[in-house]
UniProtKB/TrEMBL annotation:
Transmembrane segments: 20-38
Species, as recorded: Chryseobacterium vrystaatense
Record keywords, A-Z: Membrane, Transmembrane, Transmembrane helix
Protein's name in the database: Uncharacterized protein
Length: 103
């Protein structure tokens, strides 16, 4: 490849002729970051869609499970245990906060 006469080309082209690898690297990184940011916005939209779909499917599954447990007669006992454990955990947290404030 013959070297062109540097006096006949502009400043930007002079930089490209002197450092062709740097120019290729700069173009590559520019294209990479542009693609990266475009895909990030698409990814966040897709993430929101799949999260909503997952929550919908999970709610349907929980509803079906609850119906089956009710039919079998297990849900009443499980509901009481869950309410008891929830109440116990909440009162423990409140008691810890009150004790920490008292110190």
């Amino acid at each position: 490849m013959a070297n062109p006469n540097i006096n006949q080309i502009g400043r930007f082209q002079q930089l490209i002729v002197k450092n062709p690898i740097a120019f290729v690297a700069a173009v590559f990184f520019l294209m990479f970051w542009t693609t990266y940011f475009i895909n990030m916005s698409k990814s966040s939209d897709a993430e929101q869609y799949w999260k909503e779909l997952y929550e919908k499917e999970r709610a349907e599954k929980d509803k079906l499970k609850d119906e089956l447990l009710m039919k079998a007669g297990f849900i009443q006992q499980e509901t009481i245990k869950q309410a008891d454990s929830t109440l116990r955990e909440q009162t423990q947290e409140q008691a810890k906060q009150i004790l920490n404030q008292a110190k």
